[in-house]
């Protein structure tokens, strides 16, 4: 069993009469990229702030790297980095100069700064000043500055928010690289499940302060899997045709239904083959349960993006 990095147990946070977090329990193990998904106001930032110790909790317990005492947590938080409240970037300095300023207290070498610039795909920014950076570049530099202290656990609040599609892809690759190259465990948030599903390998769904579901990547994939639904009164004949077509990933659901999990784009030719073999097809079509539909189904609401 891999090491537990964060264990939040029944954490509640109340603002006045509003319960921003309601008994939230989350466990994050080393190497996970844990995606916290929820619409605006669901409590994502509040949860991240409690983990970082930026705000106090009203109920529950937080354990980090096995530490839960006040002193132990203080110590554990030194192994963490976060993008919730990052040091300001200096607009008139270059990426390298900014990192030098952040590194001044930490005794970080130029070589490590080189590594960080490379890791964040900022190595070619040369003399360009931060004020002329794109939002994506600025966000990557902000993450680089949190990496100066060499954290083992990184918390990123909506890291892809506001980025254009290519910036999103770049950020995704960088986060995956951080996990692969440096073994950093990551907790990140988004209000788009579709977006998170491409980065994270574990998901927690927050809704109105409550954690309503937790899933692994595999569970999410099977919950939202796309397939062809075939309805026929002649299941046995249909199976023979599918086998002949070399289709292996299918499931006979009951006496009249087969789910086909491959060749989703081939509905027409599957239908043709069945009909040519005199199979009586009453219905055939693709079910596409998109991730956002799944999210809405769970939360029973609308997303305010
Ligand atoms: N300092 C505060 N005082 C009062 N209420 C607050 C405070 N901070 C957050 N809240 C409320 O707590 C709830 C959760 O906010 P939070 O920022 O954690 O949501 P979120 O899921 O991160 O959403 P967003 O993506 O909009 O930041 C919201 O209803 C918000 O208005």
UniProtKB/TrEMBL annotation:
Keyword DNA damage: no
An MF annotation (GO) of this entry: ATP binding
Keyword Transport: yes
Pfam families, per database record: ABC_tran
Annotated family: Belongs to the ABC transporter superfamily.
InterPro entries the record matches: AAA+_ATPase, ABC_transporter-like_ATP-bd, ABC_transporter-like_CS, P-loop_NTPase
Protein name: ATP-binding cassette domain-containing protein
Domain ABC transporter: 6-233
Origin superkingdom: Bacteria
